[in-house]
Amino acid sequence: MRRFVPLILVLLLLSGGALAFSGQGTRLDPASLPEGWVVTGDWLASPGDLAVFSERLGVQVELLRNYVLKAPQGTIQVNLVLTATEEEAEDLYELFLSFHSPEEVARQGRRVVEMVTQQPGLLEPARAALRFLPEEVDPAKGAALKEYLARWSWPVMDWGDLTARLSQELGRYRLFLVGESHGTAFNQELEGALLEFFVREGGVRWLLLELPPSIAGFLQKYLETGDEELLKLAFAETRHTYFYTQERYNLWRRLRALQESLPEGERLHLVGLDVEQQPILALRYLQHLLDQVERGSLSETGFSQIQQVLRGEVSYPDLFAAAEFVWGLLLELEEEQVQRELGDLTFRFELVLSSLLAGLRLKTMEDPLEYYAYRDRTMYSNFLKQVPLGGGTAFFGQWGLNHVFQGPQLGVEWLAARINSRDEFAGTVCSLVLVYADSQRLSQDGTAVELLSTYASGMQILAELAGGKPLLVRLDGEGSPFSQELIWKLATPQPASGVTTDYFQYLLYVPGAQAAQPLNW
What we know:
- The protein is an alpha/beta fold.
- It is built from 17 helices and 18 strands.
- The protein has helices at 47-57, 86-97, 123-129, 139-151, 159-166, 185-200, 213-225, 228-236, 246-261, 279-290, 305-310, 319-333, 336-342, 346-362, 368-386, 415-420, 461-466, and strands at 22-23, 27-28, 38-44, 61-71, 74-83, 105-108, 111-117, 131-133, 153-155, 175-180, 206-209, 269-272, 395-400, 429-437, 439-442, 449-452, 471-474, 506-511.
- β6 (105-108) and β7 (111-117) form a beta hairpin.
- α14 runs antiparallel to α15.
- It is globular and about 80 Å long.
């Protein structure tokens, strides 16, 4: 998903609007949302976060919650703070008034609430409609949940603890997916360990990457040749993205060593699923392919312009012009003479160009849900184009969190849900999601370290069981409450229906993850 940073995390909430809320709790009642509004973010501060904010705000913060609501006209963030006493709430209210007008904050008892939006017209319907309920507390359910988690969770002292548990699933699933929140060093440490395990023990040779076909193409050639210049090309245009970290660069060096250790003829197949979001990198890859063929009649086609674009001799001033150029290349690719010149590379050209056209289209979309739906639809199409669907072929992929959900959420049918709906894969997809507590991440542009806590639960059962180490939880064990109801421990909004195991089968609780490091060549 696109990066979401609750504004309250920067402490000073620089803009907002008054919210005269009703109800006696801190949990937003979905039924109170005005028509057409949806919750797209629900973040609950962890104990570590609460300690940080208590110190900074000068009051004892017992609960801090952030909701992001999408309305047809725009987005609203509702920030709610619960203090230990009414006196502290009054102090916090007065603090907010020092940089807000009285219309921009509200207090009720121990709760101080603020609404942040760039669309003032959304304030009145929010004030009139939004209602907050008490947090659900059911001692019997809590006890049953704790008993289940004590039986079906295991601290991960080293990677062997993790892979020993997952080895029991090798005969049950064909496609293993991990859903992360980008930007932590832990992610690539985990990915490296799982790749070693699934390749060596699970017979996996197909790696499904949240990368565009161009980067996957460069990386595939690097794995086969060991040419470091190809590895650098793969990273060249990805500065200011989550891909551009030292940990990811080191991971690919590790994968090269893994490739070399495999029996001859058993190479790893890299499948780039994503849209092409860096047009210059996509064109560099196509030119890299063109350099491998005799030009012949290609010099009379639009493909000859790729080199001119890369040299800066030709430019396309807007998205429409760029899309028109790419569409023209796709049309030329259908010509028999062009296909003869390109030979087996025709498929790679079509894959990159169609993904580039999709990436240009995404840049025109302002609605985030439309963006997510279109992107995952394109990723699914790229999956179908590149992998063997039948037989016992096994796959592994580590993607952004929502992509691994096996059912629709936020009205979006995510990539794993689409794959799992096919007859060839139904019931053979295993999703493991990462939830972080008291962690840090590198920002997407690589310039800052941000707080990261995605464990959205007031009950700290996982923290108690983990003892400061990662904790693996199987959710579909015998008698699991996660197989009987929708228990959602993630900060991203819960789905509208189903039970937890309709969406993922494992959870890895990660406390204290450190931020990734920017790539240092």
